[in-house]
């Protein structure tokens, strides 16, 4: 059994990406530290790969690193390339992760309810079908030649502007056809879909696709126009997540052009602009290429953080090494070296070493030379060009290729790589530089400093509120505005909306839209064999897809509540509201007791609730004695009115007991 996971998103921006491409293989850039699930994390980016997997030479590599020590964490993460405009000098990697907590396996042995859990709410599906089929639509919109059928009462419940236009004294309120201007058909279609379902249609391309962003901008304007506050916040949330250098100014203009409700989007665009400006003056670099960890640990909820890696700075210096009387240094044998004075570049000490007769037996009769890192401690990334001065012209000429001169190498003071690059030259090749028996060597050393990574910052986010469509439909039922059908229940008048009833119940659809619907509209519809409180609770579920008073399939209920659930099950079966029927069965199953099991069994058999009936029989078979059951009024009523049901149940109980006893013996 898994606990709720913690989710986090960290945006790692590599500015001036091309400046990092000359890093050696296995050299990486580390993001700032960020926190998810109470643990510290970072992202490693290898511009030239890490040679960890065969066959992937020439590939970049990215890894997520757990910075918290002595911790075992189960992680699921995804890596997304958000913005790959390498020609513009920026690559952005979006690392989305889930940190899953786990509890002991013993909890998986808890007993399971006899009935399946009720299905998820089908209200959005019914509303979507109503919009698609257009059954009972009372108004038609024309948008740039495209036709959209809709229902006045639902639009009025979802938007105060639609309410004023379609149900008020305005012109549109008295017309069945309404022409719309200033909005694209696809935007209006998405607006209607949200008004009916409280969700957006699936859009191809994701949040970053230009067409999707354009749709979101259009929907934001439409939501502001029709005062649909939740849709407005949903659009703001989507646009704030997609803010980039290219679109932040557009979003800022859009937010300022809207109403005062767009302050969240304005705040997000300002934060992004402020962050982009701050990148021009990055903080001082931290040691070993790591950014300092943030001082505040992020909460274990959905968070998005960002850090930026700036191009590395370089330090360059030229050291001139003059060897006078060069011929006198030859003939001393292999491994006899002449070392220059010590020079410092970027805080590290270096020397140029020359072997006039070669070194280590390699390349005999050739002069060898290299740069030697003398400092101990950390590794150093540097490129080196070695030049010889022609004394006849005074020009220093490089003795290695331009590619090798520009190659960044990692000097490690702990191994042989502290000496690089090796240059070997024959005496004949040196003659032009030895006119006066003097060899002048120029060493141009360029040291790459560690890249600077900004501290982790929380990315601006806008949180859209939860769906409010059920609350709005509940208000519609309570206020009765626009109600067009009247019921008489035990002498009490109850009003409702034909569109909602037809959408939710096929029986209501047949009654209200069938051949007799015109006659029914003139007089109240009499509901027999049902109490007003039960019918009102039934209507509440029809409108909101939830039980009044907070009763649901997961909780216990008292005797009075169980009686109401029984009546609701009868109503659900009568009007074919399948989900309500399943919820009632689930509640009754979880509240079975010796005093009510016989009554529940009779109810289950009468209304074709097979699973509830099986649960009652199994409950009866688990009783240690039947005396308490036989003494109940429900058992006596069942024995008198439906003895066949009782006989069948007792027979099944006996078979079930035999099966259980035989399994125990085995």
Task: Give structural notes.
One of its GO terms (biological process) is protein ubiquitination. The chain is 35% helix and 23% strand. It is an alpha+beta fold and 666 residues long. It has 4 domains: 6-109 and 281-309, Apoptosis, Tumor Necrosis Factor Receptor Associated Protein 2, Chain A, CATH 2.60.210; 123-246, Potassium Channel Kv1.1, Chain A, CATH 3.30.710; 314-448, Apoptosis, Tumor Necrosis Factor Receptor Associated Protein 2, Chain A (Sandwich), CATH 2.60.210.10; 469-665, 2-Layer Sandwich (Potassium Channel Kv1.1, Chain A). Strands 6-7-1-11-22 form a 5-stranded mixed beta sheet, with no helix packed on it. Strands 12, 17, 18, 19 and 21 form a 5-stranded antiparallel beta sheet that branches. A hairpin with a 6-residue loop joins strand 6 (74-83) and strand 7 (90-100). Helix 1 packs antiparallel against helix 4 (185-197), helix 15 (532-544) packs across helix 16 and helix 19 (610-621) packs across helix 22. The radius of gyration is 39 Å and the shape is elongated. 30% of the residues are buried. Residues 83-96, 98-115 and 272-301 have low confidence and may be disordered.
Task: Itemize the secondary structure elements and their pairings.
Elements: E1 6-15, E2 29-30, E3 34-36, E4 39-46, E5 61-66, E6 74-83, E7 90-100, H1 123-133, E8 139-143, E9 146-150, H2 152-158, H3 160-167, E10 177-180, H4 185-197, H5 210-225, H6 229-241, H7 248-257, H8 263-278, E11 303-309, E12 314-324, E13 338-339, E14 343-345, E15 348-355, E16 366-373, E17 380-390, E18 395-398, H9 402-406, E19 409-411, E20 419-426, H10 427-430, E21 438-448, E22 457-458, H11 469-479, E23 485-489, E24 492-496, H12 498-504, H13 506-513, H14 517-522, E25 525-527, H15 532-544, H16 559-574, H17 578-590, H18 597-606, H19 610-621, H20 627-630, H21 633-641, H22 643-665
Parallel strand pairs: 1-11, 8-10, 23-25
Antiparallel strand pairs: 1-7, 2-4, 3-4, 4-5, 6-7, 8-9, 11-22, 12-21, 13-15, 14-15, 15-16, 16-20, 17-18, 17-19, 17-21, 23-24
Helix pairs in contact: 1-4, 2-3, 4-5, 5-6, 6-8, 7-8, 11-15, 12-13, 15-16, 16-17, 17-19, 18-19, 18-21, 19-22, 21-22
């Amino acid at each position: 059994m898994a606990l709720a996971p913690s989710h986090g998103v960290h945006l790692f921006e590599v500015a001036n990406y091309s400046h990092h491409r000359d890093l050696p293989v296995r050299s990486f850039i580390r993001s700032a530290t960020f926190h998810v699930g109470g643990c510290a994390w970072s992202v490693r980016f290898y511009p030239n790969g890490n040679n960890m997997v065969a066959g992937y030479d020439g590939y970049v590599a990215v890894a997520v690193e757990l910075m918290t020590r002595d911790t075992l964490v189960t992680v699921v993460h995804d890596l997304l390339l958000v913005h790959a405009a390498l020609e513009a000098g920026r690559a952005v990697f979006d690392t989305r992760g889930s940190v899953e907590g786990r509890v002991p396996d013993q909890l998986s042995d808890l007993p399971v309810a006899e009935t399946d859990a009720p299905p998820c709410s089908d209200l959005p599906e019914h509303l979507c079908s109503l919009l698609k089929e257009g059954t009972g639509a009372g108004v038609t919109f024309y948008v740039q030649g495209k036709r959209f059928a809709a229902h006045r009462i639902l639009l009025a419940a979802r938007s105060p502007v639609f309410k004023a236009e379609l149900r008020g004294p305005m012109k549109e309120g008295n017309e069945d056809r309404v022409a719309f201007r200033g909005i694209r058909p696809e935007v209006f279609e998405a607006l209607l879909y949200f008004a009916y379902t409280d969700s957006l249609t699936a859009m191809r391309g994701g949040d970053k696709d230009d067409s999707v962003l354009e749709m979101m901008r259009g929907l934001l304007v439409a939501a502001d126009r029709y005062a649909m506050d939740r849709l407005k916040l949903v659009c703001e949330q989507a646009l704030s997540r997609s803010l980039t250098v290219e679109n932040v100014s557009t979003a800022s203009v859009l937010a300022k052009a809207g109403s005062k409700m767009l302050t969240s989007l304005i705040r997000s665009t300002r934060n992004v602009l402020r962050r982009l400006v701050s990148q021009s003056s990055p903080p001082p670099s931290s040691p070993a290429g790591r950014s300092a960890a943030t001082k505040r640990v992020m909460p274990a909820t959905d968070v998005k953080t960002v850090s930026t890696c700036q191009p590395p700075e370089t330090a360059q210096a030229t050291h001139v090494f003059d060897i006078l009387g060069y011929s006198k240094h030859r003939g001393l044998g292999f491994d006899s070296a002449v070392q220059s004075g010590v020079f410092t570049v970027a805080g590290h000490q270096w020397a140029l070493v020359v072997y006039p007769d070669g070194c280590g037996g390699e390349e005999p009769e050739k002069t060898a030379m290299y740069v030697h890192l003398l400092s101990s401690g950390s590794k150093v990334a540097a490129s080196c060009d070695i030049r010889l001065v022609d004394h006849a012209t005074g020009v220093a000429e490089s003795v290695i290729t331009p590619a090798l001169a520009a190659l960044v190498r990692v000097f490690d003071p702990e191994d042989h790589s502290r000496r690089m690059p090796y240059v070997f030259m024959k005496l004949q090749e040196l003659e032009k530089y030895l006119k006066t028996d003097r060899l002048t060597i120029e060493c141009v050393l360029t040291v790459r400093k560690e890249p600077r990574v900004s501290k982790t910052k929380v990315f601006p986010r806008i949180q859209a509120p939860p769906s409010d469509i059920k609350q709005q439909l509940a208000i519609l039922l309570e206020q009765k505005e626009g109600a067009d059908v009247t019921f008489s229940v035990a002498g009490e008048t109850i009003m409702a909306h034909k569109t909602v009833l037809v959408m939710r119940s096929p029986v209501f659809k047949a009654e209200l839209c069938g051949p007799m619907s015109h006659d029914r509209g003139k007089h109240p519809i009499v509901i027999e064999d049902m109490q007003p409180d039960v019918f009102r609770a039934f209507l509440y579920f029809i409108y909101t897809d939830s039980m009044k008073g907070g009763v649901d399939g997961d909780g216990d209920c008292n005797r009075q509540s169980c009686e109401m659930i029984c009546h609701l099950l009868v109503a659900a079966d009568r009007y074919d509201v399948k989900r309500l029927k399943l919820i009632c069965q689930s509640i009754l199953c979880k509240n079975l007791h010796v005093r009510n099991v016989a009554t529940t069994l009779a109810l289950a058999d009468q209304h074709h609730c097979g699973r509830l009936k099986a649960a009652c029989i199994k409950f009866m078979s688990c009783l240690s004695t039947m005396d308490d059951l036989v003494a109940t009024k429900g058992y006596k009523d069942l024995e008198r009115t439906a003895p066949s049901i009782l006989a069948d149940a007792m027979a099944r109980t006996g078979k079930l007991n035999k099966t259980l006893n035989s399994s125990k013996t085995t």
